[in-house]
Amino acid sequence: MKFRSRSPGKIIIIGEHFVVHGSYALAAAINRGSTAQVTFSDRSLIISKNLSLKTDLVGRIPRKLSPLVEVFKSTLNYLGEKRHIRLELESDIPISAGLGSSASASVAIVSAVSTILGHTLNEKEVIDLSMISEKLIHVNPSGIDPAVSTCGGVILFKKGFPYKSVNLGDSVKLIIGFSGSSRNTSRMIELFSRAKLDSPFSFQALVTSTSLLSKLTASALASKDLDTVASILNYNHKILSSIGVSSLLIDDLVESSLASGCLAAKLTGGGGGGCIIALPPERKSNSINNKFKRFFTESWVSTIPNPGVVTWRVKD
Prior knowledge:
The protein is an alpha+beta fold and 316 residues long. It has 9 helices and 12 strands. Strands 1, 2, 3, 4, 5, 6, 7 and 12 form an 8-stranded mixed β-sheet that branches. A 4-stranded antiparallel β-sheet has the order 9-10-8-11.
């Protein structure tokens, strides 16, 4: 018996960093993600095809696999299971790019492992178990990444509250561009938090403003008011850049994206490297993405919304 789970990565459309401090953020599942394949075995084993690493659940565990091993073990413990599973992981998300690769893999693991063992978990259970790796990697995560990877679509998210789904009247195309430079989320979070210490009242005003702008962006996306969406995204990038969580490379790529004809462009995720998202005019996403090939390490068009995690049985 063999099962596979496919879980999407994510982009934060607006609200990164501020969401950790109580703001709403708007996020969406993308058309790339992680796949976990599980079969019963004589011993439990995790194999990462992308990292060319494998390990069992005991003994010395490779550092890069440790958070995922903890998710695997915690899922088995939560279900009260002793049966052994061979788990193979594969992803088409650039690693350390701010697109939620760790959460995507964790959600796929939880879903695949629980399914092959005959257990049905609800969304909250999947998210909570997936948060184990997020806490190990990011220390104080908001929880937005596993929420998007689990439920998919477009969501308004506030830490400590149930997410709100945003129903789009029509799909919207965004371009995701990978700078080729990995980001250090923990460092960016520390840098961002410093701004709170330096100017606590101004910082809180930005948290409140970002929360409102996230809601306005959700409404504008739902009605496909791309001019309003573009104005907010461009403004949001300048705020993040002024706080210091962008980089010269990311700022240059944002400028190049706008020069290529995009309505808006901004960093997405932790910042300091990683990816940007760009909003092209309707019916011009492919032609503009072709221009992106000149200055991004990798870029692609992702239509939103996209589904959350799905699991299915594989025929032998």
